[in-house]
Fold each of these.
Amino acid sequence: MRRFIVVSNTASTEPFSLKDLPGSAGRMDVVVRCLNTAFFLSNDLRRDVEVLAVLLGPPDPPVTLRVVGAELKYMNPDERNIASLINHALMKGASEAERRSTPGIYISRRGFEDALSEEFILLDEDGEPWHGAPEVQTFLLGDQKGLNAEQMEYARERARRTVSLGPKHYHTDHCILITNYLLDRETLL
Amino acid sequence: MRRFIVVSNTASTEPFSLKDLPGSAGRMDVVVRCLNTAFFLSNDLRRDVEVLAVLLGPPDPPVTLRVVGAELKYMNPDERNIASLINHALMKGASEAERRSTPGIYISRRGFEDALSEEFILLDEDGEPWHGAPEVQTFLLGDQKGLNAEQMEYARERARRTVSLGPKHYHTDHCILITNYLLDRETLL
């Protein structure tokens, strides 16, 4: 199974307006597009992918959404639809114990360190170049501003490896798609 | 310069509601995401990219939007923002002569055949595998339903080559990102 851990230090931890994902929802649009690129194939969903979206924005962090491709329903590729599913989960509210919001979408109070409890690859521009599918297929990515200094130090110490998709600097959601594509190619060759 | 020609047989040719891009706007969300993946880098825009979005949906086709990275302003990566720029162009209205709507976005009455007046590569699942950057860097892609039979026949006859990004079937916007990524790697190596 492939896993993507997306950390957003700004994304809203309370329900938000679907009209203003970048502004009042704290760049929730980035998280939304990450779910698009993690799961969507043409007329299909990637059933072997799981995403942890760690939301650390105001007013009530941490909140973690766990999105499970094998169970996912009702998700369309447009931002407004995906955002409405996230909103639904935030309306349900996060508790210590993980709870299901809609099929394939779970919400809990887990935070950054909880998300890194298993082995992972840190995707970062300063990493070594991608040379074939890594031995671990859990990937950690920051949001539009990247991990903060403290998170980065914590992640670097624990990451199995740090890998760069280079040569350009890509958006987080684009990095997920590129990773999916590279793994598709290398797994099937 | 890289060029992407995106053909949508359903996308609205009149102003639409930003609340319903997939429905009443005829899958305008697909066109919008294609502009995202064509142009956005982290904190940067791809100035060497141009997109032709050929809109063939009701009520008044054809309309072609030409989006020029070198001149582009006011575009943010979220769907609602990009859609509002397209809406602005459609409100201005299309005439035979191309006119500028906002910086980098032009609208005209050009149609499918006009868009294929220069050499291009057809991106299609049935094509030959991608083996290095093609000699022509103009790429033709269909929308969520692909080109119709007549368009496909026209395109196949004129395409310099037909290339597949395989091995999976990707969304149109994802194909653009993968192509950008492959060209980034191969151009800089």
Amino acid sequence: MRVVRSVAAMQRLALNRRGKGRIGLVPTMGYLHEGHLQLVRAARRQSDFVVVSIFVNPIQFGPKEDFRRYPRDFRRDRRLLESAGADVIFYPAVKDMYPEGYATFVEVERLSDGLCGASRPGHFRGVATVVAKLFNIVMPDVAVFGAKDAQQVFVIRRMAHDLGFHTRIVIVPTVREKDGLAMSSRNVYLSQEQRAEAPVLHRSLVLAKRLVGQGERSAAKVRAAMRGLIQRESGGRIDYVEITDTDELKPVRTIEGETLVALAVFFGKTRLIDNIVVRTGSCEL
Amino acid sequence: MRVVRSVAAMQRLALNRRGKGRIGLVPTMGYLHEGHLQLVRAARRQSDFVVVSIFVNPIQFGPKEDFRRYPRDFRRDRRLLESAGADVIFYPAVKDMYPEGYATFVEVERLSDGLCGASRPGHFRGVATVVAKLFNIVMPDVAVFGAKDAQQVFVIRRMAHDLGFHTRIVIVPTVREKDGLAMSSRNVYLSQEQRAEAPVLHRSLVLAKRLVGQGERSAAKVRAAMRGLIQRESGGRIDYVEITDTDELKPVRTIEGETLVALAVFFGKTRLIDNIVVRTGSCEL
């Protein structure tokens, strides 16, 4: 496994490899957990040359967000990626990705506005921009993302399709702790008490799925039940609990077809997200 | 020479060709003139497989601009490109490039705001977006643009560099009619009288270059001399006459180093642009 730090060297490597077997890319911000490693294994199965990028991307953080204190541990990440079968870690410096005079941004309209986009203005612009740039540098035939970041998945899928990237976008299901909490690098911020309460997020999603399975079609009623559960069973402050279509991510009143149930809840300063996709009709999930 | 109309077919072709010799791309809006053909010949010299795209890109036209009446003549273009040595014409439909639900745009900040961007809001967003998409579809190692569209050149160069495209951007000098008028598909709009007056644009640029060569360093004085000449010798309505740096395209007060002298002038409804780059110091142009 090689570690490549420069943008130019990574691109030279990709130019040499492209067309000679599939290149797989797993974009991460590091501080890896089992969820990331599942992405790497999926990339391993679906490509011949696996690049994992580790880059805490400043332009997807708001001015009051946790860019500086975002957890980092490169040596541990390197060890984990070696075991998971990565061929290259692409580990660029911020000033190599965004040199002085940097001016170009990729925007995905509409899909970036609601859900996390509403409380994190500019976040998905930063995500779409860095992913487009990583695609140009690494030239992946396959790129793998985790379903936990649902809006990110929809934004990137739309961006890749709209801009004509040849890269196939693969989504891997959320990996959870035994008590249901979605794995996240940010879980490390939680106090013991917050950690004990946080699984209520997943329970609220399971509740939503059960209600829809029982025939409930009112988004308002499902959301109210979820909010009630979260408020009864935790001290979390709800940022949003939303139910949207899976095309434009617009809130729906009636749950039918493929529908995203997504939430963001603060535990102290730590903002956790989770989601589930439910399907009504013949192909119930 | 092949004509490829579908985005998917063009990308399949590029995926098969990439890495086996250099792919060259010349993005055009068709209605080709000698200026375009020079771009194709430059691409021919610098690459092994030359793709010329013909696409009148709706998203770079404002609502009151000439998208609908923009001149088109595909049969003539095809004949010219055959002679100039293109391998492929990529000739996509608008609904294949921008299908329903299209949402992604590429923005180049600062460089897109002044000059033509001031009177054509959104124009360079449309340009940057379509060029990024063409780069992803055609995967060119070299892309060739004409110097006549100066701001476009700077915006695309910045975009390609910022987003990490491996594509090398090649700029070919403006091709002019014998009387100095820059070749443009829009020259066909001019009445006989307007056509007779239009070469004053080039004369004003030559005047600017001469003044700078004689030691004039005041941008205000050079601009005033240019405006005076245009107003004396034509009925053109000046949109802008501007002198900027060649990095961020910001207006300068003092002309030093590499400087862009650019203008846009309306003759009736027809907006013509032209420019020249002047250099002070040891390497006078």
Amino acid sequence: MSRHTVEARKGAGYKLEAGQTFKVINTHGHQVVDFWAISTEDPTEFMSMVHTRSTLTKLVPQVGDILYSNVRAPIVRFVEDTSPGVHDTVVAPCDLPRYHLIGVEGFHDSCSNNFMTVMGQYTIGEYRQAPESFNLFMNIPWTEDGKLSFEPTVSKPGDYVVFEAIRPVLMVVSSCPQDILPINSGNPVEFDVEISG
Amino acid sequence: MSRHTVEARKGAGYKLEAGQTFKVINTHGHQVVDFWAISTEDPTEFMSMVHTRSTLTKLVPQVGDILYSNVRAPIVRFVEDTSPGVHDTVVAPCDLPRYHLIGVEGFHDSCSNNFMTVMGQYTIGEYRQAPESFNLFMNIPWTEDGKLSFEPTVSKPGDYVVFEAIRPVLMVVSSCPQDILPINSGNPVEFDVEISG
């Protein structure tokens, strides 16, 4: 087992073999973690939220569910969740245009930029931009008439989720640097991951 | 004004200049139409459901809303809707892997394949696969706890939606060939489009 801390506002990538598990720990409780899984055998194949929703007929995957790739193949299994299960698949990972739209001038860290930085480090594939992310601990409630809102997490310090790699994958995670909307309670922080032996 | 019929189970593309409008008519009432808009100035920029949901804070765009691209720029305006407003942004355009998952053997028409065929005809950009589509007239209700289901349309014959091009775009539409799930009432048919002068 190896344990790693992912710095506040930054991203990281970890290569896993099939059968290894990846635990994402919300160490301080209020942090959103954007999460992607990329096939290392075919880097154009990635865990896809829109295909996962279609196959599961759910807005949000739960423990026991398989997550599917952009060619609708099983890629990751959701095996454990000690949080209240409030995660998001319907909003995009933050990016510089998003920050500019909400008033930021100049540079701001973003989950999309963190994804691209990690992909550059591993050079296992070419992405023009980050695919849709599985936004762990992110609280985006929907109403009966389809309104969405950006709310603080409901997870507690130490809550974690665990995913099993069904195939060799690069797990990419980002400490969401959103400090304008309340989703990280205004204070993006570090979090930890653990990878099974 | 020009009017065109899109054949059952097939796709078509139409280049519009900024300010032109694109009417999609559910001629027979029960047909789902998968819809994309691609910038003709930069073919890597496309109308993106995940970015549109995030910006509108809505699961489904409505009349008066702007639809946003994958770089969060306005690309299309939703200007009229005579249907009950039941459309979908959360499930993926059908593709061959989808049909194989639900029991089809061999080839089956799909909205994703129709998109790729149209893009091949216009050769304005290179897509590995169809982006998320705006699924017009598609009835994918969600429950309070996030369950989705695939239901028949609730639109009437002749119901239509109108979009205005904010910039030069290729409008791509597909008559969804889904004949296994009930979304097209088991009978995919032709529909019509009208483009303003």
Amino acid sequence: MEKIKLTFLGTGNAIPTKKRNHTAMLLTYKDENILIDCGEGTQRQFRIAELSPAKITRILITHWHGDHVLGLPGLFQTIAMTEYQKTLKIYGPVGTKRFIEELDKMNKIEIPLEVHEVQGKFAENSEFYLESIPMTHNCPTLAYSFVIKEKLRLEKSKIKKFKLPNSPLLKDLAQGKDIKLNGKTIKASQVTYKEPARKITFILDTRLNDNAIKIAANSNLLVCESSFSKKEESQAREYMHLTAEQAAQIAKHSKSKKLILTHISQRYEHIPKIILNEAKKVFKNSQIVNDFDIIEI
Amino acid sequence: MEKIKLTFLGTGNAIPTKKRNHTAMLLTYKDENILIDCGEGTQRQFRIAELSPAKITRILITHWHGDHVLGLPGLFQTIAMTEYQKTLKIYGPVGTKRFIEELDKMNKIEIPLEVHEVQGKFAENSEFYLESIPMTHNCPTLAYSFVIKEKLRLEKSKIKKFKLPNSPLLKDLAQGKDIKLNGKTIKASQVTYKEPARKITFILDTRLNDNAIKIAANSNLLVCESSFSKKEESQAREYMHLTAEQAAQIAKHSKSKKLILTHISQRYEHIPKIILNEAKKVFKNSQIVNDFDIIEI
């Protein structure tokens, strides 16, 4: 099973610290390299992580606040210095097209872009799709899921057992079609197994809301902002952010398997365990990430 | 004598590396904190250096290429989160007002700004002045000098010798006026000495040109870009940059006292001595700086 690799390039929030840069994550799956948000300094984080920005295929923007997007112009410039042959696909909430136009006016964008303001399912192919849903923040904001679809796979031992030759019939079986071989019917279900779907959800800046639970439903990995601790719950409400406990509630109610806490405020630079412990009380399988952490599923 | 402190916040060029961020320098003298250029990620460099962006009084922009200015929006945002009571003064070449307007459209600037497109001497007061001169790059570009004026100082031992009382007469002497005390003339020159002028010049992106030598004349410190080595001289000419040797020629012909090499390309990440040695052959008192180096004069 091909792994999905998630590299955390920035796990801080509005003000960067020595340890945490602004938000950015890179999801790698086969040829896809999907960047989720791009705070100031992201291109340097790529460099430090020894990753190539020229491999990026898509960028998902949760919202157009500075700490999530100010790395875009520099990233575009650096990609333009490579021999980038692709069309970079940018997805974001309403307003994204206008923002990209403004960026282009400031600093001419020298790579081919395709800009989409999205809602619901998008970028679907036979293997995966992306999905977005509106969040509750003080500007248009989206949460995203990356979903690899359930897939039928041929079971090698069974192929041997039934002495199936390497022929187009195998393809039929892999597509769930029963076949006839030497007058005998072989059911697809006899020689295949289902590789389960996998889902990663990204919930960045938002106040607690039902859509968050909806999009996160049954995620293998829920990456969620966790800007405040329980003590600052009123501030979280005022600034439209989540506490660690609320992030854990989303994980719990959405029946997610694992919760990843990010977007950590500078006030917890030396005491991130406060955040982690509050989440763990509600949802045991919680983890707080640092810049350059890698998680694979 | 109050020192001028220069903190190098970014010493790389177009593409940041693990060791070097894009260009930014902070000049501190008494209450003045003057930032020269502000590449992407500069606010985080402030944070790592444990310096406060809220103390910045002026920003000098050499030119509006991304690697010299993309840190501005984030820096403005972070300053706006402090209780910034000053009016931030921005100086730059022709086009600076338009660029600031564009930035403001993208990301509302929430601090009071005063924007000046400068030429020649500016921001002069009794203690210091700033000066700019056009360079030769592929967009409007300026080099800058910060000059502390020569100043008359009272010599304590002489004040004692002449038994001068603590009276307004001392102020007259300090201003170069001769005085009469008990019917006797005391010349200012008898009790004062001249604290010499000090000058720091900043030459960033440019091709070799006469204005560079002109503005650098008699600098105590010449901070100069040095993007290429002699081997890449044709590239330096094509991209309108300086080689280390050319930077040293400017230092030599301008009769500068010390040359500081910065804006070092990623290709010299592990071999900066190539750059330094080429400069030293022409101008012995040369030094290459790294991020977070501090130089005081």
